[in-house]
Amino acid sequence: MHTIADFCVIPMGVTASVSQYIAECQRVIEKSGLAYSMHSYGTNVEGEWDDVCRVMKECHEAVHAMGCPRVSTSVRIGTRTDKVGQTMQDKVNVVHEILAKDAK
């Protein structure tokens, strides 16, 4: 099932700056081959349900492997059966089209 997830990995019990851990998560996601988009408070990733869930698990494993004792993640997951193959970019494009009409 095609899935779009928005997740935020939160390393706990480490320094105030967690950029190095987030960079490692981005490496994991990049290696997965899934489409993704990092934003200031997390990452959107899309693909098949099992693949999306697997990459989130691999992010946890990678952060723990860096010595982080605790990892918390917030996740929002969406699936659709009425618009097969709709991508993250498709969703953004629809909003841009609506806004473009406002500008005319």
Automatic annotation (TrEMBL):
It holds the Pfam family Thiamine_BP. InterPro entries: MTH1187/YkoF-like, Thiamine_BP, UPF0045_domain. Residues 5-95 form the Thiamine-binding protein domain. It comes from the Eukaryota. SUPFAM superfamilies: MTH1187/YkoF-like. GO terms for cellular component: cytosol. Belongs to the UPF0045 family. This is Thiamine-binding protein domain-containing protein. It comes from Entomortierella parvispora.
